[in-house]
Specification:
It is a single chain. This protein has helices at residues 2-11, 27-37, 41-54, 63-80, 88-100. The protein is an all-alpha fold. The longest helix has 18 residues, at 63-80. It is 65% helix and 0% strand.
Length: 102
C-alpha cells in the first residue's frame, strides 16, 4: 500500500516525505480491500466516495440553506468588486508550497 502511494506521489510530481500509517486491518477488511482493488477505476472511485461519505455521520438539515446563502454572499461580493480574486495557478502553487514545507 505504501509503495502505491509513493508511486502516485511521483506520478503527480510531489516531493518530500511520504506519510505512512501504522495500523492493521482485520482479515475481513483485507478481503474486502483486495476485492475492491480488482474493480475498474470509476467503480473504485465511487466505492471510495461512498465509504468516505459513510464516515460523515448524519447530514445537517440546515446545511443546504446555509451553503446557498454563503454562495449568494460570495457572488454579491464578487459582483460588487469588494473581494480580491486570485488566479488558480497562484492559489495552487501556494497550497503546494505550504503542504510540502510542513
Amino acid at each position: 500500500m505504501v509503495r502505491a502511494a509513493e508511486a502516485f506521489r511521483r506520478r503527480i510530481g510531489l516531493r518530500g516525505p511520504t506519510l505512512t500509517y501504522n495500523w492493521t486491518m482485520t482479515r475481513e477488511a483485507q478481503t474486502v480491500l483486495a476485492e475492491a482493488l480488482r474493480l475498474d477505476v470509476p467503480s473504485r472511485a465511487q466505492l471510495a466516495a461512498e465509504l468516505l461519505g459513510s464516515l460523515d455521520g448524519p447530514t445537517d438539515p440546515g446545511a443546504d440553506a446555509a451553503w446557498a446563502a454563503e454562495i449568494e454572499r460570495r457572488v454579491t461580493a464578487i459582483e460588487a468588486g469588494t473581494v480580491k480574486l486570485e488566479a488558480w495557478a497562484d492559489v495552487r502553487g501556494r497550497i503546494e508550497r505550504e503542504i510540502l514545507n510542513r
